[in-house]
Amino acid sequence: GQKANGLPLDKSLRSKKQKQHQRIRKEKPQQHNFTHRLLAAALKSHSGNISCMDFSSNGKYLATCADDRTVRIWSTKDFLQREHRSMRANVELDHATLVRFSPDCRAFIVWLANGDTLRVFKMTKREDGGYTFTATPEDFPKKHKAPIINIGIADTGKFIMTASSDTTILIWNLKGRVLSTVNTNQMNNAHAAVSPCSRFVASCGFTPDVKVWEVCFGKKGDFQEVVRAFELKGHSAAVHFFAFSNDSRRMASVSKDGTWKLWDTDVEYKKQQDPYLLRTGCFEEASTMPCRLALSPDAQVLALASGSSIHLYNTRRGEKEEFFERVHGECITDLSFDITGRLLASCGDRAVRLFHNTPGHRAVVEEMQGLLKRASNESTRQRLQQQLTQAQEALRSLGALKK
């Protein structure tokens, strides 16, 4: 009989097939490649697609959750290093679609895809500096009837918010008891969030406005009621998404009418004062597909994601300054600035990509130059000059300083 590689023919074919079979098993879906001069890092430990991420309030950690049944906690101080370490928390018999840190950064909550409920994980520091993650024995009771779109924890630690795609927002205490049910009357909810100041819960959906409620507590910390605070009115079609600035004094929204808007929400709403519209910008992509947005902590930069691309706008002038195309192999599922505002994070496939926020540095340069002209005393001038120099240095190091 004929031989191939010293083996009988049918055997050699069999071994070839086995090798091919093994190769097919080994070949995972190709990791999407993306390069850009402003890409600061790519975090790649998940084996499944990442659906959500959250920066801790102390700025030390980033949590990500994926359909690989894990939540990963990354150290932000490693972001600009070559190695990116992460700690893994396993989600037993389920996977998390949403993740949020507790205000004290000692726990996080996740929304379970199959369980349709909230689970709390406690983080315990070990002697070696790592953490042990323990799920609390009881998950929250099931209350929502429609798929969940977002969860949030108030920075005061007084309540948790969950919102579903019907018109329901639930306000819970931390033990899993529902304090209040809010009907948004928007046909459906597209997005909902807790404000960084913890006073407000807001939602947008089928209607052309963003509705904002105040969650009221008594002097002794006891829950009282949820009351309508104010609305952002000005869009002419459904609102896809909105975000708060770090001090809750600004909000941004993006709508199916093809525009984004920046609002001053630092108003006396109890005296019926309405938020002021500060800026309207054009974003055609929003008229044909759902979009997400992130507002930098100082509200100077607006990031808009449509499909797998990201657009960065200067909110003072309304001009687009950066554009990142095909950042991920899938549609972008989450977008967020870190608490310093120097980095923008996005996820959508198995990686988190971090970008340098050059429009943010440019905005600081503009602002400081303006303030320097008006500065009256020397100590103020020195402080402003220092901030100006830092921002210029950052831009120079990124090759983004405009001549």
Automatic annotation (TrEMBL):
InterPro entries: WBSCR13, WD40/YVTN_repeat-like_dom_sf, WD40_PAC1, WD40_repeat_CS, WD40_repeat_dom_sf, WD40_rpt. GO terms for cellular component: endoplasmic reticulum. It holds the Pfam family WD40. Residues 14-26 have a biased composition (Basic residues). Residues 1-31 are annotated as: Disordered. Residues 374-401 form a coiled coil. Keywords: Coiled coil, Repeat, WD repeat. GO terms for biological process: endoplasmic reticulum unfolded protein response. WD repeats lie at residues 43-75, 141-175, 232-264. This is TBL2 protein. The gene is Tbl2.
